[in-house]
Design brief:
alpha+beta; Arc Repressor Mutant, subunit A; 2 domains; nine-stranded mixed β-sheet; two-stranded antiparallel ribbon; 4 helices; 11 strands; 30% strand; elongated
Length: 223
Amino acid sequence: MAINNPLTQLTPRQREILEYIVSFQKRVGRTPTGPEIATHFRFKDPSPAYQHLSLMEKKGFIELSRAGQGKPMGIKLTDRAQNLFSTSWAVLGTIPAGPLSEVLAEETTQRIDRIDDLIPDLQPGDFFLSVSGDSMIEAGLVPGQYVIVRPGLVPKSGDICAVWVEGQGSTLKQVFFEDGVVRLQPANSMYKAQVYPAEIVRVQGVLVAALSIEKFRRSSGRT
């Protein structure tokens, strides 16, 4: 399952502009104008701001209303952009902490609400995956847990990451970068490490937190 995070379609500057538009709207009650964006990012004139905005519109994050010469261009955040910065977080599917041959669940539309009250350092673009398999149990990751993955974080050797291996699929493993190859290390003595050429491995995000949600049957009768 290739994990497609919409924010990866934006350049770093476009992402900063989008985050600024969202924060400005929350603070002021409207979206900023092109000149206000240019001032905030210290552009010499509004032209670079409008160029970024036009590209962001093509990518589906904003809608621009062009009222005519001499009138400011209106900016409206699309539902796609609003959802990225909402207080609910997408669960993109199930990722195996086990053999790569395991079948992944289809991407779901499930969302976890208000989780940012428990994990205050969540960032826009973070997403949740549900763990299946037992290859990471010695790292405390068990089937049914939700893991929080951050796609914009640069992975380092030893990080636990969501990884896509060409021709194999996705998996959750500790990642080590070694002389043109990537070693995927399980945290379970029953599993062996797998080594792949670096060109067929894509790190989709770094695990930054994990949580489990225990379900208990509520008694409907007398105690």
